[in-house]
User: Fold these one by one.
Assistant:
Number 1:
Amino acid sequence: MNAYGRIYVIDNNALVFIKREHRASNFFKQYCRIPNEVLHEADGFPDIDDLRQLEYPVTAGVLAWLTAVMDTVPVNDTALVNLYHNQGNADPLVVATALDGHHCSNDGALFGPTWTVVSGDEAVQNKAREFGLDAMTNPEFLSVLEGESQQRPC
């Protein structure tokens, strides 16, 4: 499947990894969505106003998926979320957003885009895969972006 058959849900560590020039690309603007809590974490970015245009809002559906995601996290597991150290606050929301997008955009359709989680956090990638989503590391996603910039004229 080519990149146009995907929607990418971006974690904050991916935003940092790919840098501003890639975040400004037409491909990124067209095929990427950023959960609200990730935007909160990225508040100091110089291009935050542009990134806000890609926001995937927290809806009742996202919250329902968030509950489903958190139901699979054992109480003593701090790999995905560690509230005591203020780590991973957006991570379950990244997965819940991708699940909501997948189920809403493909609702009633025979085929739809593949919602793909992009994160450098292995716990986020694993949780996405646990729910049947595709997941991509930050370097893998950077390769997609760089491949697009080489194929398309500016």
Note: Residues 5 and 113 are 5 Å apart (CA to CA).
Number 2:
Amino acid sequence: MSSQLTQIQPLSQPVDIGDEVATFSPEVEEEIDAHLAKYPVRRSAILPLMFIVQRERGYLDPPGVAYLANRLGLRYTDIWEVATFYSMINTSPVGKYHIQVCRTLSCKIRGAQKVTEHCSHKLGIKPGETTADGRFTLSEVECLGSCGTAPMFQINFDYHEELTPEKIDQILSSLP
């Protein structure tokens, strides 16, 4: 039995989903163009471009998704599938500090639930919520790939491992 791979052809016309499409400054457009030039297959630029849109808009909102679909010649859902797969892509607003607690097996066995409970108690929010001042968002996520140093969380893009309540308190109090 032979299998064939079908190459996805880019759309020749921009996607019209009837919603607002994000716009960016000329400097950001240049940065996006520079990334696109690195990839012979435009689809391969999805993640780096998502990070740019997220940086500029705070999260990957529907207008940002529509923008990427148009720039890459893909469907809206193609972009959304990737965005919702990766925990580092935010599809809703988050606080200045996004605390993502790993909840998968290694971390769970070594106390991830206690980490979540401690953060929740300390910040006065449940997973999926943001503090009233917009400073912290608490989330539980799938494996962050630091199983040997569990339990752990990441704050924005910084890993914090072998967590204890005392260590969590120290980390949170050190944030500006």
Note: The chain has two domains: 26-85, 97-174.
Number 3:
Amino acid sequence: MFDLLKGLEECWSSGRPAVLATIIDTQGSTYRGVGAQCLILEDGRIIGTVSGGCVEGDIYEHAREVMQSGVPRTLQYDFRGSGDLLWGLGVGCNGSLTIWLAPFHPATYPAQAKQLLQVMRLHAASPRSFSIMTVIQSSDAAALPPGTLVALGHDREEGGALHGWGEIAERAAQYRAAGRSGLAWIDLSGSGGKTIRVQCFIHTVRRVPRLVIFGAGPDAIPLVRGAKLLQWHVTVVDHRPAFAATDRFPDADEIIVAPVGTVPPLDVDEETNVVIMTHHFEQDQLFLAEMLTRTIAYLGILGPRARTEKLLEKIESNRKAIGLHPLKMKAFHSPVGLDIGAETPEEIAFSILSEMICARTRRSGMPLRLRKGPIHERTGDLFSSVPLKESV
């Protein structure tokens, strides 16, 4: 996400065109799911991926035409059956993709480019989940052209007004509640009571995952690097100014020096991951006591189980407050990380981050070769409907 935004910002500053490609529908087995995006630049570079590299070359050829015309379009790739291997791109993924190509041309179409850039800025900085609605097809392109963007469920509604668009807002809320993105057909009331039938892509934008690390020791350095590789927002907290320093954590989004015996005010919620690893018993105890009172996605503590038990013995009041032994809480992980035999700080970091991903996606972390059925659940749209007769 941040790489895409950086690319758009650079194009906006230089006036160079680009195209943002988004998967708006899938059928069968595909490498990426609905909502995956990549940015195609004028010089042929591609930031991100929508297929693992299978179709990006072909997408670039279509993107060049979109850059020149300024008109968005949809692409469809069907890899099912042997025909693809013989005459197509040779992917053999046994699935199909529908991709939306949105032009970004600051020099020729500055208003449209600014609209897309503003929505993507919201995507990167939003403190909570919201939706981006894109008009894909419209029965009245003059009144509501394809490519129209609206941010829904956000304090700042970028891209347009929502007069009479209550149904879109309601469906977007349903998609957010289900953690889904997808297509929907909706009838809108235009001027003079005219009905405009539109196909919308409703993209559910989740808040960027957040990681708070209590402890700025050497083992926290690869954990920060790994989290930033995942494009998470990272906060590092420590009581030692020499450790909690930007030269040691140049990638961290926030570094906080908290005096011994204090817990700094932190914006943590049900989408925040927390790891306690100060290697200081009293500090670990302090942070653990505070985090046990919060509703967070993941709470891990570095060290053997026996040490954690000693920490918990000092926090009896919190046990009573939550009404459940912390070691039995789903969000509580001690010892922290997956059992991969990790020993080095780098291996431990991968172990911890992998367990956080498992907790977020509700997956087991077992080898994929042991999984029965598809790797990803590619389910259909929440809202079934009939497309327009005209092909747009």
Note: Confidence is low (pLDDT under 50) at residues 83-90, 158-164, 384-392.
